[in-house]
Amino acid sequence: MSLLPLTFLLPLVGTLILALSRGTLNARASAVVGVASVGLAALVTAWVGWTFRADGGTGVDMTLWTWLSVGDFQPAIGLRLDGLSLTMLSIITGVGFLIHLFAAWYMRGESGVTRFYAYMNLFVFSMILLVLGDNVLLLYLGWEGVGLCSYLLIGYYYQTSANGWAAFKAFIVTRLGDVFLAIGLFLLFRALGTLNIAEILARAPEVWNEGSLEVQLAALLILGGALGKSAQLPLHTWLADAMAGPTPVSALIHAATMVTAGVYLIARMHGIFELAPTVLYLVGLIGALTLLMAGFAALAQTDIKRVLAYSTMSQIGYMFLALGVGAYDAAIFHLMTHAFFKALLFLSAGAVIVSCHHEQDMRRLGGLWRRLPLAYAGFVVGGAALAALPLVTAGFYSKDEILWEAWAAGNGGLMLAGLVGAFLTSLYTLRLIIGTFHGEMKSDNARHAEPGRGLVHGLPLVVLALLSTFIGAGIHPPLEGVLPSGPGADAHGVGHTVLGIFAAAASLGGLGLAAWLFLKRRRWLAERVAGGWEARLWRLWNQAWGFDIAYDRLLVRPYRGLVHVLRNDIIDRLVLVAGWMAWLSHRGLSYTQSGKLRLYATSMALGVTVILLVLVLGG
Amino acid sequence: MNGIPMEHGLVLAAILFTLGFAGLICRRNMVFVLMSLEVMLNAAALAFIVGGTAWGQPEGQAMFLLVITLAAAEASVGLALLIQLHHRFKSLDVDAANRMRG
Amino acid sequence: MTLLWLILIPFVGGLLCWQGERFGDQAPRWIALATMLIELLITLGLWFHGDYHLPQMGTASEATRWSMEWQVAWIPRFGIDVHLALDGLSLVLIALTGFLGMLAVLCSWNEIVRRVGFFHLNLLWILGGVVGVFLAIDLFLFFFFWEMMLVPMYFLIALWGHSGSEGRTRIRAATKFFIYTQASGLLMLVSILGLVFAHHANTGEYSFAYATLLETPLSEGTAMLLMLGFFVAFAVKLPVVPLHGWLPDAHAQAPTAGSVDLAGILLKTAAYGMLRFALPLFPEASQAFAPVAMTLGLVGIFYGALLACGQQDVKRLIAYTSISHMGFVLIGIYAGTELALQGVVMLMVAHAFSAAGLFILSGQLYERLHTRDMREMGGLWGRMGSLPGFSLCFVAASLGMPGTANFLGEFMVLFGSFPAAPWTVVIASGGLVLAAVYSLLLMQRVHFGPAKGEGRFADLDGREYLMMLSILALVLLFGLYPQPLLDTTGAAMLEVQQLFGAVAQSSTLMTGAP
Q1: pLDDT tens, position by position, A99-111
Q2: DSSP-derived secondary structure letter, A23
Q3: Closest residue of A to C403, CA-based?
Q4: Which of A583, A586, A598, A608 should be substituted to probe chain B, the one whose Cβ sees the most B Cβ atoms within 10 Å?
Q5: Other C-beta atoms lying within 10 Å of the C-beta of residue A581
Q6: Minimal Cα distance from A158: which residue of C?
Q7: Residue B46: its pLDDT value, please?
Q8: I need a labelling partner for A209 at 20 to 30 A (CA). Which of A116, A261, C50, C315 fits?
């Protein structure tokens, strides 16, 4: 009997305890329950991983019960542990535990933290089901569950309407993607008659020829789901607004785990995408476009968390790019390192935000590096990994791998986009660090910053910082046999080294340019941005190319207009015309009932006359 | 028979009926309304007499008796209503009693 | 005999409640609660002791089609019997009636203070009528119970309802409800009589028996007309969109118990009617009509969802979401595959729970705030104890969150209908997005946002908390382990599918070569 179910049952138990406590738990007890459940899940995961290794990587198949069974439709509540899900599981529980721990520091003094930990534990539960589910319906359960938790946590500070609407937007936009995924599942089930992932992957090549219309369609629909969840073009608009949630939430959900679910999904369903090369190419293309789009947008943000949000989109763009060239393992590798360094960056940002009394605008921060050394160190290490500083950081190895695979797949265009993206990444990363930690302190909040103390604050940062360096790159996800190896897997050589040098140059070049621009030519830059076409460009990037406005005009307003027009139930009104007519005729007839004797007599005489005339003349 | 031609009698009855009806729909005073009704009834009775005479049938006179009785009954009921009307509305105007208008 | 008692218990209980008022206001409440509990227990007893894995059609004779039957002559001259029968489908729906009946009694515990005895009389008589509808398989008897439900419902809305805003009075809503359902009932009566006369023309004898009429050969045109009569009657009750006008008014103005019964059970009688009568009696005509019905279902999904977004009144919003959900039911019924039909049952049960939950919650909200206008709410999350948390759960169920029974229902319908009507399903899936929009809009307007006042409202008391928790537990139970339910209704649904699906194959052959 494997301990595998405990990984998600523990967070579930945590959720139930917190949800049913009805306010009897104080903040400290809630934190203990919330953190401990995930911590125990992480321990179980470690045990599961160890047995996985010991068994030689055969994995575990476990059917808990048959969910329902009607004819062929027999999805199970079943778990499948293989290298891919183990990797994801480790990230979710491991990084998740560190983030929960940090949250215990971050959420101190807030009211109603029971709710916070309940949501967080529920999120971990759903996310684990998402990666462990052995059939697509269970995966969908987790998929929607994480969406709901994301919604709840973005809107955690519910008293501010804007947060609520940000959460609303996040849920609706991802739900749009989910519907595509759902239709894709209908299509898969109709064609293959099964929902089990392993069976789907096995049967797909038997039923479909490569490039047949139906498989392309299925792949496209699944991609739709992945785009929504992973905030890729054109369904990316929710992620930046999602930063309204508490920062540990952004670290866990909107950086390390949930937003990478799309990458996991495509990797999981790789068999379908292999049969639809055009769609697979589209995946890469969307990744490349997103990474550039988000890179430019990140350059023009002033909110720390929004910079990180756009950088997350951009990094997931890299993962999609890797998927698009068939380098699934490179994508998952980057997913892992990204989880480390982006979680580190977000937690450091959280440390800055709490220390500076919830100030997160770079224009009002600055000069903090002396006051907040630990957060500064976190930012430097995480930023270096994000910017892929050569040789010493985890980010360099994973990003280099992606670029190499793209090149090896013969896709120079995508590789070039990746290089440009790397350059942009360095640029905005250093801008973020300089803007936050160097220069003069621009507000009282920054001047009165109080550094965080204690183990719960320090430990997560230190561990994640270590994992963001080359140490993290040393962890190799056990993906052999689960995912097909990428095109450049067995062609390491001079070409790879040369490309590595190019990538290093792009990264260092970006850093250099950023240092020059933001340290030496600051005033010049500010003047250029103040007016003219640069200002317009800045505004365009600041609003992330205007997608929000376009969607608002094209979709939201027409919808609201339609709702407004229909609000009073037009059809009902039409039916009421019948009642209105009856009323009208009643009014008309009752008007003749005047109560005047003379009128009655007249009408009677008239009637008699008419009848007589008809009888006489007609007869 | 060399008396008055039947047509003359019928025309007279018709004229009387019309006069009565005109009075019925023009007058608002209940006394006059009742009188008009009497005139109309008598016009109808006259028509019966004329018809009975013309065809030499006794039924015409029988109907006349019936009409007379009817008129007497009508007059008594009408006068009773008139007293009630005057009692309730302090007026003999029939339009004042239009409480049953829709 | 048990079947007769299932119907009689609520009626007798109702009379007891009425007279029980002499012993104080609490007596009718306890009597009503006990009545529904007995009803539920009997049904559950039947469930555990009976065998609903019936032999398949074709291999079995007519006698084994029902797991229980009870018959006595009523008006033999016209072939009218009191003929009751129970199969898996009716069993599940009666159990649902019992459970929701208890909830209806519980949720009006503090709400109803005037004429308590008469209120419970009406409430129980509605439930009795509903049980009758689920059990009757003599068409005349079915019609009798069908009309029987309406009168007490009318009184429930007219006497204990809330008068809404802008001239929407409870009397008006009750009248509207009565006229809509009565007029459509008349159409059904005409259809029933038409069917009986058609049978008379064939065999020379009158019969209202379901099993006899099932085999009446009908010409294509007649079958279509008669089917439309049934369809319209059920479509008004379901409701299907152009005929839905009574529902929002009735829901908004009815007392909480009335809304719970309406949404939870009365709407289900319509789907039951379609599954039991409209489809099996006229398989060919229904099959020909299926595209129209599915289109109506689609219209319902989107129209209901759009209107739900535009409402200010909480209960009207929930009422429109019912219309949207019933669109899925309609699509599932007329898709006619086994999976879709089972999904319909699932969705009916799930919607009964989630809608009842939401209506009870809005009733509790009304008791605390004395308004149902969402413009006057907002920011209630921290001020009401566990009520917002429950709202969240039921809103999640209503938007089809996996893990809840609603998700399974919707997805079974969609999975099952996809092979039969792929484009319909694709468009219907769009309704899932709108479901999220209106459901979250409810949360957003009522519980999130800046608080509109100071202080806290009363938390849920033990009765309310237990009530909500039990519904929620059932929603989750059926969302994660629905197999007992599906096994019970499986045989009944398979039968419908075989009657309906056999025609589907031949008709596709026909339309394939026109």
Answers
A1: 999 988 888 878 7
A2: T
A3: A141
A4: A598
A5: 10
A6: C448
A7: 92
A8: A261
Q: How far is CA C195 from the centre of its chain?
A: 26
Among C346, C488, C498, C494, which Cα is nearest to C412's? Answer: C346
Strand pairing class (C80-86; C68-75): antiparallel
| A571 lies within 8 A of chain C by CB | yes
Residue C505 CA to residue C502 CA, distance in Å, equals: 5
pLDDT of C312 > 60? The answer is yes
Please report the residues numbered 364 through 393 in chain A whose beta carbons come closer than 8 angstroms to any beta carbon of chain C.
Answer: none
User: Can you read off the two tokens belonging to residue A513?
Assistant: 């340019």
For residue C84, list its beta bridge partners. Answer: C70, C136
DSSP state of A196: B
Give CA–CA dist C377/C372, Å, rounded. 8
- Kindly report, residue by residue over C495-511, the tens digit of the pLDDT: 888 877 766 555 444 44
Angle of helix C220-237 relative to helix C170-203, nearest 10 degrees? Answer: 160
How would residue C58 be classed by pLDDT, with cut points 50, 70 and 90? Answer: very low
How far apart (Å, rounded) are the C-alpha atoms in residues C241 and C231?
A: 13
Give B4 to chain A, closest Cα distance, Å. Answer: 27
Is the preceding omega at residue C248 within 30 degrees of 0, hence cis?
A: no
For testing the chain B interface, which of A586, A589, A597 should be mutated: the one with the most B CBs within 10 Å? Answer: A597
pLDDT tens per residue across span A391-419: 888 888 888 888 888 888 877 888 888 88
Q: Are the beta carbons of A340 and A386 closer than 8 angstroms?
A: no
Which residues on chain A are in Cβ contact (under 8 Å) with B28? 598
List the alpha helices (DSSP H) in chain B: 6-26, 30-55, 59-89
**Which residue of chain A is at minimal alpha-carbon distance from C378?**
A159
- What is the separation of C-alpha A391 from the centre of its chain, rounded to a whole number of angstroms? 29
Residues in chain B: 102
Residues forming beta bridges with residue C402, ordered by sequence position: C404
Q: How far apart are CA C37 and CA A296, in angstroms?
A: 65
Q: How far apart are CA A121 and CA A578, in angstroms?
A: 56
Please tell me the predicted confidence (pLDDT) of residue B77: 94
Q: How many CB atoms lie within 10 A of CB A576?
A: 14
Q: What is the distance between the alpha carbons of residues A604 and A442, in angstroms, rounded to a whole number? A: 97
Express as a percent the part of chain C with pLDDT over 70: 93
Q: Using an 8 Å Cβ cutoff, are A101 and A459 in contact?
A: yes
Quote the pLDDT of residue B20: 92
- At position C406, the amino acid (one-letter code) is N
Bridge partners of A74? Answer: none
Task: Please choose, from the candidates A613, A65, A152, the residue with its C-alpha nearest in 3D space to the C-alpha of residue C443.
Answer: A152
